[in-house]
Structure formats: C-alpha cells, structure tokens
Write a structure and sequence with these properties.
Layout lengths: L10 E6 L4 E7 L4 H10 L4 H14 L2 E3 L23
Antiparallel strand pairs: 1-2, 2-3
This protein binds zinc ion.
Length: about 90
C-alpha cells in the first residue's frame, strides 16, 4: 500500500466477503499510548499482546464498517498479494 498524505481516519470502498456487497472500509487505528501504558502496568508482559495486535493490524488494516470483516477485496488488486515491483 502506498501512503499518501496524513489523513487520520482513512476510508476506502471494497468488496466485503461477509456482506457480499461493496462496503465502506475504515483503516483500523492503534492507540499506542494506551498500549504503552498497559506495558508499564504489566511490567512489560503486555508487550506480547501489543506486538501481536500490531502485526495483525499491519496484515489486515481495513475493517468493514458494516460487519467488521477484515478481509476486503479491492477492485484494483484482486486476491493475489501485490508484488513489490519498482519503488
Ligand atoms: Zn461487511
């Protein structure tokens, strides 16, 4: 994915497998400050959950506004993962 601009809440339209319809997908955000706080409170134990959540969010950053599904099908790039060519 190409990062353009610094929008705080990004949205995109994509096909949702659960809704079986085109839906609006929102980019999921992480509250790193909150996770940092939890990590302090749990003496670092929370770092594991933090990392797991972060990886999951990086893998599936989009979430359906209707059903919360995180596996949208984008019209410009079908099921196959994009090849990192060029840039
Ligand atoms: Zn959906």
């Amino acid at each position: 994915m190409v990062a353009t601009g610094g929008m705080t809440k990004e949205k995109t339209k994509a096909y949702c497998r659960k809704c079986r319809h085109e839906q609006l997908f929102v980019m999921r955000k992480m509250h790193h400050g909150l996770h940092f706080f939890f990590s302090l409170v749990t003496l670092g134990l929370w770092l594991v959950s933090w990392l797991a959540l972060y990886v999951g969010l990086r893998l599936n950053p989009w979430s359906c506004q209707q059903c919360g599904d995180v596996n949208p099908i984008f019209p410009d790039k079908p099921d196959a993962p994009p090849r990192g060519e060029g840039q």
